[in-house]
Amino acid sequence: MTKTILITGCSSGLGKMTASHFAGKGWNVIATMRRPDPDLANQYPDRILVAALDVADPASIEAAIQAGVERFGGLDAVVNNAGITMVSIFEATPAEAIRQIFETNVFGMMNVIQAALPHLHRRNGGTIVNVGSGVGIAAMPLLSLYSASKQAVEGLSESLSYELSSQNIKVRLIQPGAMRSTNFTTTGMAASQSAPVPESYKPYFDHMLQSMINYPFASTQEQSVVEAIYAAAVDATGRLRYQVGPDVEEYARLRWSTSEDEYRAGMHRLTGHTAWLEMPN
After folding, report:
1. How far apart are CA 5 and CA 28, in angstroms?
2. Which of 58, 70, 134, 266 stands the most exposed, by the fewest C-beta atoms within 10 Å?
3. Residues 177-209: pLDDT tens digits?
4. pLDDT tens, 60-106?
5. Active site residue: 44, 146, 242, 251, which one?
């Protein structure tokens, strides 16, 4: 029987590539996004259904799932890929921006999972793949909100991996590293407009933003993340975490294989904090 997967955040980038990858592997795909782009289905018109879905709107989630079930007969797996980020100084970040990050990255993911679970039960099992981030392992400066949201995804995924195993439902967590498709300069400027940088933070913000631009690791390739998502969806083992990228592998090593002091020293160095501390006042 052909399996069916629902994927969120398919309007561009990783989500769009993931939808095409699964369809190419013979899956039925419910490719969802807030503003549907029917062209996504052109390559595989029989296997891809493009549907409107806003993770913050439970009614739209139910409608997208129902449309997919009516088209393909059921639901076997979910990829929670939709997410947003923000580069900012926490002290100056508006409350509405904080809520928006968590509505999308955390509560939105919860909404999709709760809506999908009854359909997975009808298949007597299934798989949920949550796309996290390297900052779920190691938090980064200027990314306090994104780091907090992705660490919430870490906790949610691990807890659910135990809980849902009783229902024959597997939970997988993808931890991608930084991808060069993310333009840190543009993101930083946009964040400055919505959350102006306080004067006392300006030298620090500029230095750390430049450290982001001069990231010391090779870029994580989107195709590698797509392949990890697919591998996670078909993996029959009890594995939870899938790290993708040299930066994430190093952050995981520092976090889980060294002392707290070594971890902190390593992160100070890798994020550019050491260079900041050594700069003359």
Report:
1. 6
2. 70
3. 998 764 444 444 454 467 889 999 999 999 999
4. 999 999 999 999 999 999 999 999 999 999 999 999 999 999 999 99
5. 146
Distances in Å between the Cα of 202 and the Cα atoms of 19, 51, 92, 192, 195 are 41, 43, 12, 10, 12
Is the pTM higher than 0.70? The answer reads: yes
263 an active-site residue? no
- State percent of the chain over pLDDT 90: 86
What residues contact residue 214 under an 8 Å CB cut-off, 6+ apart?
A: 272
Query: What is residue 107's DSSP assignment?
Result: I
In whole angstroms, give the CA distance from residue 214 to residue 262: 23
- Which of 234, 231, 266 has the alpha carbon at shortest distance from 250? 266
Cβ atoms of 181 and 225 within 8 Å: the answer is no
Distance between CA atoms of 131 and 279, rounded to whole angstroms? 37
CB atoms within 10 A of CB 227: 16
* Tokens read off for 139: 């938090």
